Amino acid sequence: MSILEYNGGCVVAMAGKECVAIAADRRLGIQLQTLACDANRVFRMHDKLFLGLTGLMTDITSLHNSFDFKLNMYSMREGRLMSPQTFSSLVASTLYEKRFGPYFSEPVIAGLNKDNTPFLCAMDLLGAAAYADDFVVSGTCAESLFGTCETFYRPDLGPDDLFETISQAMLSALDRDCISGWGVTVHIITPEGVTAKSLKARMD
C-alpha cells in the first residue's frame, strides 16, 4: 500500500457558474482499520478560497498549519486577501522545496477569482500543478471519481445543481473504495458566501 493511501480519503472540487464546490470524505483509518469518521480534509483559507488535502494525516495537519501562517503573514503585509492563483503558486513552491523529503499529501485548491470565475487546481506531492475548468480530484478513489464526475458534470451549473452533482459523484465513487467514505462534507462557494453541508454515506 502506498503511503498516500495509508490513512485513506479523497477530495473532489467542481466548477459551476460563478460558484465552485469542494467535497471530502470523513473517514480516518490506518489501512483497512477505521479510527474515526470525523476527519477534516478541507480547510477554509478565506471566504473565496478553500484547500483540500489528501494523503498522510500528520502531513495534512502540518501543511494546513504552514499555509494558514503564510496566508496570515501575506494578509498583514499586503493588506489584502491572497488570490487563488497566487495561493496555488505558494502551495507549489512549498511542496517543491521539500522535494527530497516530501510531504505525503496531494492538495486540491478551489476558489473564486476577483471576477467570480471559478479556479480549480490539483497537485502531486512535489507541487506539479494541473489546472482545470470543470473538476479536479485527489485521493484513494481518484479513478472512480474521474469516471463519476465525467458522467454527472455539466458546464455552467448553479449552486444547487452543483451541490447535487458533486454529491452524487462523490457518493457513487465512495461505493467503489473501501478505505474512503463514512460521510461527506460539501462546501459551496458563491460570491454571496459559503454553504457547508454534510452527507450520509455507507458505514460498512
Automatic annotation (TrEMBL):
- Keyword Membrane found: no
- Which cellular compartments is it found in? Cytoplasm; Nucleus
User: Which GO cellular component terms, listed alphabetically, does the Swiss-Prot or TrEMBL entry include?
Assistant: cytoplasm; nucleus; proteasome core complex, beta-subunit complex
One GO biological-process annotation of the entry reads:
proteasome-mediated ubiquitin-dependent protein catabolic process
Instruction: Summarize the protein's role.
Output: Component of the proteasome, a multicatalytic proteinase complex which is characterized by its ability to cleave peptides with Arg, Phe, Tyr, Leu, and Glu adjacent to the leaving group at neutral or slightly basic pH. The proteasome has an ATP-dependent proteolytic activity.
Q: How does it assemble?
A: Component of the proteasome complex.
Return the PANTHER family for the record: METALLOPROTEASE TLDD, PROTEASOME SUBUNIT BETA TYPE-3
> What's the protein here called?
Proteasome subunit beta
- Please name the source species: Porphyridium purpureum
| Source organism phylogeny | Eukaryota, Rhodophyta, Bangiophyceae, Porphyridiales, Porphyridiaceae
